[in-house]
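Recap quiz, item 2
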Amino acid sequence: MNHDVYKCKVISKKEIAPNIVDVTVLCREIAETAQPGQFLHIKCGDEISMPLRRPISICDTFEDKVRFIFERKGRGTNHLNLIEDEIDILGPLGNPFTISNDAFCNPVVIGGGIGTYPLLKLAKLLEKPTVYLGFRSKSQVTLEEDFKAASPNVTVATDDGSYGYNGFAIELLKDKIKQDKVDVIYSCGPTPMLRAVKELAEANNIRCQISLEQRMGCGIGACLTCSCETTSGGTWKYKRVCKNGPVFWSTEVVL
Amino acid sequence: MNHDVYKCKVISKKEIAPNIVDVTVLCREIAETAQPGQFLHIKCGDEISMPLRRPISICDTFEDKVRFIFERKGRGTNHLNLIEDEIDILGPLGNPFTISNDAFCNPVVIGGGIGTYPLLKLAKLLEKPTVYLGFRSKSQVTLEEDFKAASPNVTVATDDGSYGYNGFAIELLKDKIKQDKVDVIYSCGPTPMLRAVKELAEANNIRCQISLEQRMGCGIGACLTCSCETTSGGTWKYKRVCKNGPVFWSTEVVL
Amino acid sequence: MNLKVNIAGVELSNPIITASGTFGFGREYGEMYSLDELGAICVKGLTLAPRAGNPPPRITETYGGILNSVGLQNPGVDMFIKNEIPELKKYTCKIIANIAGNTIEDYCEMAERLSGSGVDMLEMNISCPNVKEGGVAFGTNAKTILHITQEVKKHAKIPVIVKLSPNVTDITEMAKAAEAGGADALSLINTLLGMAIDIKTRRPILANITGGLSGPAVKPVAVRMVYQVAQCTKLPIIGMGGITNGDDAVEFMLAGSNAVAVGTANFMNPYACVSIKKGIVDYMNQYHIKDVNDLVGQVVIK
Amino acid sequence: MNLKVNIAGVELSNPIITASGTFGFGREYGEMYSLDELGAICVKGLTLAPRAGNPPPRITETYGGILNSVGLQNPGVDMFIKNEIPELKKYTCKIIANIAGNTIEDYCEMAERLSGSGVDMLEMNISCPNVKEGGVAFGTNAKTILHITQEVKKHAKIPVIVKLSPNVTDITEMAKAAEAGGADALSLINTLLGMAIDIKTRRPILANITGGLSGPAVKPVAVRMVYQVAQCTKLPIIGMGGITNGDDAVEFMLAGSNAVAVGTANFMNPYACVSIKKGIVDYMNQYHIKDVNDLVGQVVIK
Ligand SMILES: Cc1cc2nc3c(=O)[nH]c(=O)nc-3n(C[C@H](O)[C@H](O)[C@H](O)COP(=O)(O)OP(=O)(O)OC[C@H]3O[C@@H](n4cnc5c(N)ncnc54)[C@H](O)[C@@H]3O)c2cc1C
Ligand SMILES: Cc1cc2nc3c(=O)[nH]c(=O)nc-3n(C[C@H](O)[C@H](O)[C@H](O)COP(=O)(O)OP(=O)(O)OC[C@H]3O[C@@H](n4cnc5c(N)ncnc54)[C@H](O)[C@@H]3O)c2cc1C
Ligand SMILES: Cc1cc2nc3c(=O)[nH]c(=O)nc-3n(C[C@H](O)[C@H](O)[C@H](O)COP(=O)(O)O)c2cc1C
Ligand SMILES: Cc1cc2nc3c(=O)[nH]c(=O)nc-3n(C[C@H](O)[C@H](O)[C@H](O)COP(=O)(O)O)c2cc1C
Ligand code: FES
Ligand code: FES
């Protein structure tokens, strides 16, 4: 087992965009074993009022520090935002992105919205990946500097054109595939975007990994609540996002 | 209506004995109208997890400040102990003690344990009342100085004799009644003590008011959950502790 | 924006109703805000003769909910008519009289007496879990529901709401029985039967041993029952069970409630009804909904 | 101090059992602590043939509880026997196989196959609210419970626990039917049928529309049912429903549970079973109780 429950001291916490909170906690155990694409299962309130933890991706790790970024969305994340001292974290969980720089010489990393956060550590480990980051509008743009520090090939797109490329990040990927050789695509973001990425990758025979979201119970593979549909069908139709994912090969899953 | 819901800023909070927490909050509205024996209905946690407020007596008021003291007992009071900034209080509620210095020349105030807290403001308003305060043992003794500032006739008793008079406060009252004229007794404390006080008072034809506790819903008289049994019997057997009490004439109620 | 709803011909200025037993006869909360804020007030359960109710303790908190065992303490229907209706008539909100009987005749007699009294609707409480005779015994059997509803309808000159118990295997059977008996509307849910034990004293916390569970904890059961009942009857529905904020109220309306009742939430926040009404308005503004009736039953099942 | 309890002749080292469906086949939690800590592990519900389960989303949080609609995803009884029993046999904790069928024959067939397989007890899940056929349909009718229990008992060579559904009008009828049918023990409660709607999308949150409610919210209903059942049968009882800490477990035992099962609490705290066991020990120390069995049914009714 490489995961456990840790009480992690909060080192820093700031709102980096409206309702987007960037947190760094102290936890050597997680920091030393976590791999890009893995996630944390975070206790946001007392177990009576909120019996479920919330899954949040690991954004980055360094030495004994773990960084994650979350959007304030509902009861859980609103409550998490109030915790100042110590956060109860179960992790690191799930399967990471597959990195193999030999076979995958020309990687593209493409993320949308809060789906950009699990990609930062990945971008850092890859060799000069092409990175496309999509946001709704300028005010939502986050982590641009961090990604630019990881790679020289970072392009930001906004749906409304208020910043960077005017349109969906997927358009940038389309152009890229037309012009250059792409060996592997890594993606995380809203389902419509993942669906487009998956189609594009498969149409062009490019290996592609996507990171999925699903409502979760245990987070460790025991309760079978976090299913996603796989291409295998039949009685093995559903896999567990928490244990078999959250990162899947695009060809494994039905979106 | 002289009660309402107020968000009250915490001015001071300290543990004055093991698990006994002394709090002062800012609330001019309550401070100016509250009378001895009334109580506050306090929100201790979020309304989902803890749908009920907790009733806590008003211990004292001065200018725009309200003081109350509570014992950490269960979920609610443990949570209340964690609130540092602002407490949501419904109050002041209930019927106060009847003070009429003309008719009641020789008042005795007798309290036990946490039942001593609602008596402080009362003792201050009475003229040199005889005050008996009973506690389990020395470590539990609280407010002695405050009561001594209110009256020169204060005696502390401990059940185990570790401080002050060795025995129950009720013994002191028995002696007092034998020796002196007592016109009125005011009491609050555990039921066995109240029962003894009531018996003693009635056997000696002394007017006596006691403050009762009961589990409560609304706190304002609407839900009929906080009943105590009255001597009237029949279909009017039960009265509401929150609205008709918490202070009753000893002859009104069955203990 | 329209907040008016119509329950069996009675127009409420908005869909917020106070749940019976949690709001007394309105006097206490009426000191805190104007009862004109409410669509209707459903008063404490009435019986033919005055009732003392159960011995205390009668209430305790549970995880996310409360248990109560008041046991229908009330001054009797005549005192209600004499002392309370004139007070309530000072407000524009409608008056719903919640009635509970030991026998079918009790219900009929109360329906008679209340019909000309100024109350706007009757709510038949056939689901109180805290009394031995009558109450829940009537509400857990479809045949009895059919029969008692038919009888009461013969005596009532104002619309009759049947309040359903959640302590049944199949809520739709009970709803259909009430509809067949001529009910003008349904309300649900009453409380779930529960129990809590004090592990220090080893005694049940409630003197009555068991009590009725209400509050946030029961909401998913209540939403499910409202949804199921909305699928199987045409009657207007008053939904309740754990409604604490505007979002909860909207959820009940989407599930099929024409109006909502607020009970336990009043205890934590005496202004709960007012703030829940505001929450509905906020939701309507955000989603550009002009008429609150456009929410009713609009849950999307694909 | 004695923590051992005996359920229908099977000795458990302590009264903590994992609730079916929340603990898989023990592999995942077994990575976090030794399953020897447990009295027994009750595995994910098994069916004769493998089952895919319901489409996602399958879970959501409610106020103080959760709704799930897994729908018995499992690899089938044969794969369980082949792949999982050998793993579980590495531990001292007892093994309870939770079985669910579409037909009575399914249950009987599974009872046959599991009887010699190394599992210690069978738990008949006749109360799953998340599947269309079988499941809850069996568990809400006393006659069916009697019949199915009798049939399964003919095929089972190990003790049979009947798991009761709370979605019934009278739990005691169901318990008595199971007892009459020859059940060796009872477990309760399974989940309450509930529903939640996303007011933003107006869709039910669960793809299955409804789901089973569990967790702290349901505890008072579960305690009440355990208490009622303990009054009317002589069978050992495994109590569950919202147990989150040692005090909750003690409350269930006082109400009449011989052992307790922990489900939803595992999700928030993966070590929940261990800490609940410790909580029971703490209570026993505080109140000078030497034998955990001395708590069973000791609620004081005056
Ligand atoms: C593997 C994984 C990684 C994630 N990483 C991030 C991240 O880095 N940053 C971030 O902001 N968000 C992330 N999410 C989404 C995040 O989990 C949800 O936004 C969060 O659970 C919402 O909780 P809430 O109580 O605030 O919202 P509510 O809507 O009130 O939640 C109600 C319930 O639904 C669940 N839920 C709601 N939305 C989601 C969702 N999208 N995915 C899973 N469960 C959900 C909640 O956990 C809770 O149990 C991730 C999700 C997964 C599965
Ligand atoms: C009029 C009045 C005045 C009071 N004044 C004080 C005071 O000044 N200082 C103080 O320490 N305590 C006082 N109490 C008692 C105090 O209300 C309880 O100790 C407190 O409610 C316990 O809450 P809990 O959640 O910590 O305990 P838990 O036992 O976990 O509470 C569970 C539920 O039972 C209720 N409850 C438990 N014990 C009591 C009780 N004795 N009275 C009423 N409700 C109870 C709680 O409010 C809650 O709803 C007073 C009670 C009343 C009725
Ligand atoms: C203290 C209390 C008293 C109640 N008394 C009655 C009653 O007299 N008649 C009735 O039909 N329902 C009664 N109920 C049930 C409520 O009207 C309502 O159905 C239930 O509490 C669910 O709503 P809630 O979760 O919003 O409280 C009572 C509930 C509580 C909490
Ligand atoms: C995710 C999940 C899956 C479940 N699956 C099963 C199952 O397969 N068989 C069964 O009998 N009960 C199942 N249950 C019900 C539990 O075993 C238990 O009866 C219920 O959850 C109440 O206990 P709790 O409140 O401690 O969770 C499941 C519960 C949950 C939460
Ligand atoms: S969340 Fe329990 S299996 Fe994935
Ligand atoms: S607490 Fe509601 S009437 Fe007293």
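The pocket of flavin-adenine dinucleotide (ligand 2) is lined by residues B 39, 52, 54-57, 68-71, 73-77, 114, 117-118, 213-215, 246; C 60-61 (CB under 6 Å).
Chain D has a mean pLDDT of 95.
End of item.
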